[in-house]
Amino acid sequence: MIGFLKGRLALKLPPSLMVDVNGVGYELEAPMSTFYGLPAAGEPVALFTHLVVREDAHVLFGFGTESERRLFRGLLKVSGVGPKIALGILSGASVEDFLRIVEAEDVAMLTRIPGIGRKTAERVIIEMRDSVQKFAAPSAREGSALGPVVSSPQGEAFAALVALGYKPPEVARLLKAADEPGLSTTEIIRRALKAAAKP
Three-class SS of residue 118? Predict the structure, then answer.
């Protein structure tokens, strides 16, 4: 599977774009949230990708951040949601907006996105509300494909605590309690868990 492309942006005609990687042009489809962050044609670009294999075609999708791709993949697992609807959702709402919509169970807000009917919106909210936490890592900490991903001890600790089942707002509070310059990821996690155990 192709997971990442780095090259020059050869063409952008929403929702399609083409990336020239050493003389090979990769055609991709991308949500508008990714298009907003793209450079001008001819400039260097890097995108996370997801390949969808159908009977009649192999379609490559491109994303500016890992959280966009994670959400896209999560949406594809919802029954009745295909790549076109998933792309529409990502084009109509940022990852953060989508998380708020699901947490608030705001069906009306989802139905404002073109191509999303009431039944689909209800199904998306029901099927995604339990898994919504894993899409909630702040984009500033996770980095983007458009620049180098800088992994900080705080960012790694955040991801680890979310993976352990803590809610992102709670993790942010715990990390404030463990905020001291120069600490390793392990030490930050240890202090955060100690803070969580306090009554």
Answer: helix
Quick one: average pLDDT of 179-185?
Answer: 77
Q: 189 vs 103, 142, 157, CA distance in Å?
A: 26, 17, 6
Q: How many angstroms separate the CA atoms of 123 and 114, rounded?
A: 16
CA 16, 113, 127, 142 dihedral sign is: positive
What are residue 28's DSSP bridge partners?
17
Residue whose entry in the numeric block shows the structure tokens 């260097």: 44
CA 16 – CA 40 distance, rounded (Å): 14
pTM reported for the whole predicted model: 0.67
d(CA 138, CA 161): 13
Please report the pLDDT score of residue 173 as a whole number.
Answer: 80
The CATH number of 66-135, from 3.40.50.11810, 1.10.10.10, 3.40.50.800, 1.10.150.20, is 1.10.150.20
Of 32-36, 77-81, 137-141, minimum mean pLDDT range: 137-141
Please give the C-alpha separations between residue 72 and each of 85, 152, 169, in angstroms, as whole numbers: 10, 25, 23
